[in-house]
Structure formats: C-alpha cells, structure tokens
Specification:
- There is one protein chain.
- The chain has about 250 residues and is α/β, with parallel strands linked by helices.
- About 45% of the residues lie in helices and about 10% in strands.
- The strands form two sheets. It has a five-stranded parallel sheet, with helices on both faces. It has a two-stranded antiparallel ribbon with strand order 2-4.
- Helix 3 crosses helix 5.
Amino acid sequence: GGPAGRRWAAGVDRNERDRQLVDEANARGYGGISISGLFFAGVGCVGGGWYAGWFERADARREYQLADRLKAQGCRIVVFELDGVLSSAKAQGCVPKHELDLFLQGTSQDWLPAVKALAFRGFKLAIATRSDPSVWDKTLGSNRDRYLVGPELATALILKRCPEVLPAFEIMVGYDPQAHQAAPEDSGKRYHMRRIAKHYGAAPGELVLFDTSAGDLANEEGWHGVLVRDVRQGFQFSDYLQAPANAVS
C-alpha cells in the first residue's frame, strides 16, 4: 500500500497497456496507431529481426527452407522465367502499358517472399524469358513504345512489387531461339543460362532455373532446373520443396 506498492502497480498497468498496444499493432499491421517513437523503434527492431530470421522456429519459414536447400545444392544464382512463374497472368511476355496493373494482380504470392529471402541471403538473381525485345520490335512496329516486353515487363513487376530486390537482378535475358533459328546448343534456355553464367562468372552447376516448360529445363551443361507445375498460380514453394525427384535436376 506504500509508494513502492503503488509504483509496482503502476508498472503492471504500463506493462498491460504495452501488451495491448503490441496486440493492436499486430492486428492492424502497425498502421493507424499513434504510439511513441520509442515503441515504434522497438517494433522496428523486432520486425527487422523477424525479417532477418532471428526468431525462426524449428519449422523454418518456407522461404528460408528454399534458400537453405538451394545453397546445399550448390546453387548461388537463381533464375526465373517470367510467364507462369513471376505472374500467372497470360501475357506471353508482352503487356500494353495501360494494362500493367492487371498483369501485376497475377503476381505469384509465393514468389514475393521467396525472392526477398534469396536476395537477403546473398543469392544473385536473373530472368530468362522467351519474350524477345528484338522480335517484339518488329512485331509491334510503330506501336512498340506502348508495350512492356520481356525484361522491361519483369523490371516493372519487380519495381512495383518488391523494388528492394531489383539490384540483385543484374541481368535479364529475353531471347526467342525459334525466331533466331538457333542452333541446338542455343535451344530451350541454354543460350539464356550461358549468358547469365558468364555475367556472374559462375559454373553451370551454380545456377538453377525455375520454368514452366520441361523442355526448357533440358540441358547438357549441368545447370539445375525446377518445373513450375501450375501456371495458374505461378511459382509455388512446393514446386521445389515438395517436388518429385524427376522434377528437380
């Protein structure tokens, strides 16, 4: 009942209020709450630590399982096809600029945390698409500037959805081997992956490609391939983490 008791009771009340604030912040995504700068600093530290993986459970989040398994496989460069992987929208690598928002609505919800975790863990990233700017230049003619194609479209998606990872995408290759009547050694995604490996100074076995076409994963050089099985969903963690042995090379 003395001063010490009142201070103790006040401390309990403050602790309870702090817990309520944290609960409200969690419920609202830390939005719309007026809390002292100190509280926000604390939440920021905790949030940063959560993103960095300080508080990972034994059943680590899938994005870090993906990163750990790719690293264990010897991969340090992760390459993605655009269509059916980054986005489930049926764009075939070419979208009118005024329809970009519709394309973005199809962004794979698994791909976003995956690519953020990969960039955070130091993986190098790349795009390998059959959407070839040189082909679209001829096809679209004077209307070309109204469209986003291949690497341009991939860049626009990344800038809108996860701009912090764009620096990790040092190279994006848009090349259509059929349009160029490519030799067998450049068919599928062989040409793309060779260019990407050269850019990063990497051995073929250090690269992995996520693609919707089993034929485009075929190669004799030793890079790894993962089949994205549902183009209506785009990239999913299960494509790699739960894939049958014959789906991952």
